[in-house]
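User: Um, any thoughts?
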Amino acid sequence: MSVTTHTPPKSSFDRWFEMSARGSTYSREVRGGFVTFFTMAYIVVLNPLIIGTAKDMNGEFVGGTTDVVTSIATVTAVTALVAGVMTILMGALGRFPIAIAAGLGLNGFVAFTLAPQMTWADAMGLVVLEGLLILLLVLTGFRSAVFTAVPEQLKYAIGVGIGMFITIIGLVDSGIVRTGVPLITFGIFGELQGWPIFTFCFGLLLTIILVVRKVKGAILIGILATTVLAIVIEAIAGVGAKNADNPLGWGLNVPKVPDQLISTPDLSLLGQFNLFGSFQVIGVVAAILAIFSLMLSDFFDTMGTAFGLATEAELLDDEGQIPHFESILVVDSLAAAAGGMASASSNTAYIESAAGIGEGARTGIASLVTGALFLVAMLFSPLVTIVPYEAATPALVVVGFLMMTQIRHIDFTDYSIGIPAFLTIVLMPFTYSITNGIGAGFVTWVVIKVATGRIRDVNWLMWVISVAFLVYFCIYPLEVLLGVK
């Protein structure tokens, strides 16, 4: 797939963002920016519940406070701030419809693995160092070289796996699929129960119908209409929030108009990081391993996300490369460091951006819109809490299907590529990790090449990557061996 030239640019703004060249319009970009925001606005609520409720080695919350409410409020402000600023920067420099926010998984690692071993400032210092190291790899051309060395069909497998990943995210967050004992269940005890599940099903069917009929704004209309339905249902039925005593409640947010619409953001967490404090607390070896764990996830998550989104948007050039890829990677690296500097945890590219692409976004203009909405959310954070999971997640399921169509580019009759592609695809949703899927696919591909006597087909960078992933997968026994566990 390649970029198709359409009408000539109408202005310097159009020329910079290549809007006409990519066959887009302002209305499509704005709709796409809104859709991306709505599908990932949950991070403004969820990241504070992870970062803001964990304690460091001194038993203190982020910012040195002992008040969890204050901690959550301050993390909410910086989460929205960093997401807004870095998403706007991605739009302006990367010129690509990718939004950035605090990375899920990474924030849990920081909150529950790193922070208990040191102070919060020390933990955020490690995040800053990780971002700066990735930036160095980008500026030296290493990160782009790695992307070029990856076999083309494995790249498509990454896109397909991401599609399945965001689908399972949508299904789990909506309550259609639940994890626990047994491992996976359908609804509650095998049944679909409750008004929130009904709301999700309504939203999913509505969005599917709109997409099939090629209605402009289909995904955004689906989210907004389903949210309105959720508000009406809550007003009448009083469903309440989902918890242990109310398993049929709304996920994440209760859809009702809040009493307070505006809140003043507290940005006191900005600059509260200590670059090398962790080296003194846990030792040099343990600190390096922690940085490596953070870095490897960030390194490949964004590469996989960018390729999957570019493929879905049909923005790859004639050589299969992503336009302005270096700029995209530079901004993403800066976002990782910025997240640490603001105590919001490492920020990274969000696969939910696919929802905006599904709505028609093709340029960085959509990211400008999404970023602006995150900044507005700093002031109107109560409004962000109106949309429940059940109203936003139908968009993820539909977009997951759209990304799944890339599977047509993979030759599964050739087992040497089919098996690595299969592992890449299935491990992303089943382990809730893009990095795990990419790592399994890469390592398996190299092993198969060696076992079949085609070692010359393996680029030296693929050797380096595969060894790095082996270290990543074996990080626990290595820590035990080195005496840091």
